[in-house]
Amino acid sequence: MTLFNINRAKFEVDELSLETFHGTTREIATIILNEGFKIIPKEVTNDLGNGIYTFCPDDYGCWNPEENAKRYAKQYKRGKVIVLKVIIDTSSQITYIDLDDPVFMREWSKIREQLEHRANNIWKKYSTGSAKRRHNIDGILLELAIKRNMLSVSNPDFVVKCTYTSFIPKSMSNMPNGRELVVRNLEIITDVKEV
After folding, report:
1. How far from 18 is each of 12, 32, 43, 99, CA to CA, in Å?
2. What is the rounded CA–CA span in Å between residue 57 and residue 68?
3. For the chain, which has fewer Cβ within 10 Å, the N-terminal or C-terminal residue?
4. Could you count the other beta carbons within 10 Å of the beta carbon of residue 109?
């Protein structure tokens, strides 16, 4: 599956790039702007696996990705909140996984069944982290599936999904309030600047 299997409107900056937004603190933003992003792989990771988490436009213009990045940072980061605009390459050689794609969902249900027990055992080994507190093993499952070459895309440049982010403390929902894009390959980032 390549990037152009989905509606081009999702990626509305131009034909070859996409604006995404990353919420963080002034201190971390300064490091990112000076040194670039760094991905530190973890066995127990966030819900969409390892990478740089950003908010991006959705199909229907329901959610403001820049505002979501700011709301995320206000809720989960300590210090002065900064939003970074992260431009990523979406040219034809870029590969990705759209976790909302119906074809992927059929593939995923089989993979989940095969890996769920292993992912849960990995989750049990760790004592901290937000995924641990919520008993969310999705990121672990995704990392296991990628590592074992079980997906139609063997090493995706990014992962994208409509998600729910708890902008209000301890709130939960099964209905999305944004679209997240997780950059897994730092080489697709073409520019980063403060909003």
Report:
1. 6, 19, 29, 18
2. 11
3. C
4. 9
Asked if residues 66 and 178 have their Cβ atoms less than 8 Å apart, the reply is no
Which stretches of the chain are assigned E, i.e. beta strand? 17-25, 52-55, 81-89, 96-98, 158-163, 178-183, 189-194
Kindly report, residue by residue over 140-190, the tens digit of the pLDDT.
999 999 999 999 888 999 999 999 999 998 888 999 999 999 999 999 999
Q: Which residue has the tokens 């909302």?
A: 100
Q: How far is the C-alpha of 179 from the C-alpha of 20, rounded, in Å?
A: 10
Q: Provide CB contacts within 8 A for 110, sequence distance 6+.
A: none
Answer for the pair 21, 65: CB distance below 8 angstroms, yes or no.
yes
Tokens of 184: 């897994």
Q: How confident is the model at residue 16 (pLDDT cuts 50, 70, 90)?
A: confident
pLDDT (tens digit per residue) in 70-122: 999 999 999 999 999 999 998 888 999 999 999 899 999 999 999 999 999 99
Which backbone phi and psi does 176 adopt, to 5 degrees? Answer: -70, 155
- 3-state SS class at 65: helix
Nearest to 55 by CA among 158, 157, 180, 186: 180
Three-class SS state of 192? strand
In the 8-state DSSP scheme, what is residue 15?
Answer: S
